[in-house]
């Protein structure tokens, strides 16, 4: 190096969390929204972002919202026990002084009841791309297994204290997304889990993982088993009319564990919407894209490589209409997977009924 040489100027790398907070800084109010019937990943992500804003931008009003219902027993336990303070999204006013943060979802992907609130910020890990017009900051990482992992990174970047209840919520949010096999987890997810676990309340975590179940849960299990059909390595199950929509995903999780199965599709009727859930036991199958093809022209769908969900709104819920739609869904899925639907059979024969012991 010559005597008059000067070192190259360096530009400090700005953390994503810093850009997020700069986007929110001008707004006195922040409202967090997510997808319909928020799951643990969405709930804990909102809670973590509230902690970030309260610590770094004190004095702002921060509201966490719920679109739809908290349906699954584990999710209700999490909301009640952590707790997660939620307001129905329809009761919240949005104005020019409000910054909307959308977590675990993206605008116009069919996962919300209304798209009236245009977000300033979108933070998500799903592969299903949304419309980002008007979004000032977005952090989209489909290679990451959970939105909670992204939020945990923000908290670490800004040195935000993470008390045991928040650590428990974030840990369970990540765990609920990456616990299947093969795991859809990145090194960032594993790092967040390792960091959160010693800080979490283990008794609280056990309570969330093991909630009591209502009788309707077992009625749906019975119906789904009685109406499950096996086509080579695919199970298709009709769950009937359900009292809460998340149980359809639970049934898909249940059926994909069958040792002769690589694909499981569970379908159920919730209100006037046909809900679909797909689970796959192999990597590289692209279940989200497959389900989008299956419901093309009928409804919306999206998801990950191994997990996907969809919804078809119905104007006619007569049994014959639903039967015809189920036939179409089954035909499209099996055709897409190159399986002969005429070689299918019932998963189980009818069980004998005994007298009460």
Describe the fold and architecture.
This protein is α/β, with parallel strands linked by helices and 357 residues long. The protein has 2 domains: 16-209, inorganic pyrophosphatase (n-terminal core); 215-346, Diaminopimelate Epimerase, Chain A, domain 1 (Roll), CATH 3.10.310.40. It is 36% helix and 19% strand. It has helices at residues 16-24, 40-56, 73-81, 147-157, 164-178, 187-196, 202-209, 215-226, 246-255, 287-294, 319-336, and strands at residues 29-33, 61-66, 87-88, 98-103, 121-124, 137-140, 228-231, 234-241, 263-270, 273-280, 300-303, 307-313, 345-346. Strands 11-12-10-9-8-7-13 form a 7-stranded mixed β-sheet, sandwiched between helices. A hairpin with a 2-residue loop joins strand 9 (263-270) and strand 10. It is globular, with a radius of gyration of 22 Å.
CATH topology of the largest domain: inorganic pyrophosphatase (n-terminal core)
Query: What ranges have pLDDT less than 50 throughout 5 or more consecutive residues?
Result: 1-5
Radius of gyration, taken over Cα atoms and rounded to an integer in Å:
22 Å
How much of the polypeptide forms β-strand, as a percent range? 15-25%
Strand order of the largest sheet: 11-12-10-9-8-7-13
Report the end-to-end length measured between terminal Cα atoms. 92 Å
Could you tell me the mean pLDDT?
Answer: 93
Label the overall shape.
globular
Please give the CATH architecture of the largest domain. Alpha-Beta Complex
Helix content: 25-40%
Q: Indicate how many domains the architecture comprises.
A: 2
- Total beta-strand segments: 13
Q: Order of helices and strands, N to C?
A: HEHEHEEEEHHHHHEEHEEHEEHE
CATH superfamily of the largest domain: inorganic pyrophosphatase (n-terminal core)
How is the biggest beta sheet arranged?
7 strands, mixed
Q: How many DSSP helices?
A: 11
Indicate the CATH class of the largest domain: Alpha Beta
Structure classification: alpha/beta
């Amino acid at each position: 190096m010559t005597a008059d040489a000067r070192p190259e100027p360096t530009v400090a790398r700005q953390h994503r969390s810093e850009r997020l907070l700069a986007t929110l800084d001008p707004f006195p109010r922040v409202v967090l929204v997510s997808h319909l019937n928020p799951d643990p990943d969405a709930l804990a992500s909102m809670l973590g972002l509230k902690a970030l804003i309260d610590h770094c931008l004190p004095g702002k009003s921060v509201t966490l919202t719920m679109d739809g219902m908290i349906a699954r027993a584990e999710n209700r336990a999490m909301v009640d026990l952590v707790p997660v303070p939620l307001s129905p999204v329809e009761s919240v006013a949005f104005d020019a002084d409000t910054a909307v943060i959308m977590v675990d979802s993206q605008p116009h992907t069919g996962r919300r009841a209304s798209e009236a609130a245009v977000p300033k910020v979108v933070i998500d890990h799903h592969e299903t791309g949304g419309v980002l017009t008007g979004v000032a900051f977005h952090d989209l990482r489909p290679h990451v297994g959970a939105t909670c992992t992204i939020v945990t990174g923000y908290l670490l970047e800004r040195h935000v204290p993470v008390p045991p209840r928040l650590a428990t919520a974030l840990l369970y949010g990540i765990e609920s997304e990456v616990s299947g096999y093969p795991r859809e987890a990145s090194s960032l997810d594993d790092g967040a889990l390792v960091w959160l676990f010693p800080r979490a309340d283990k008794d609280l975590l056990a309570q969330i993982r093991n909630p009591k179940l209502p009788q309707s849960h077992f009625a749906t299990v019975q119906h789904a088993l009685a109406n499950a059909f096996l086509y080579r390595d695919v199970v298709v199950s009709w769950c009937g009319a359900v009292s809460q929509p998340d149980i359809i995903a639970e049934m898909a999780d249940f059926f994909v564990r069958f040792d002769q199965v690589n694909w499981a599709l569970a379908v159920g009727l919730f209100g006037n919407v046909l809900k679909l859930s797909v689970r796959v036991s192999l990597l590289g199958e692209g279940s989200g894209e497959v389900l989008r093809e299956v419901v093309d022209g009928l409804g919306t769908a999206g998801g990950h490589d191994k997990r996907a969900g969809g919804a078809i709104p119905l104007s006619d819920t007569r049994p014959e209409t639903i039967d015809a739609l189920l036939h179409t869904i089954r035909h499209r899925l099996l055709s897409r997977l190159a399986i002969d639907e005429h070689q299918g059979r019932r998963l189980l024969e009818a069980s004998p009924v005994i007298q009460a012991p």
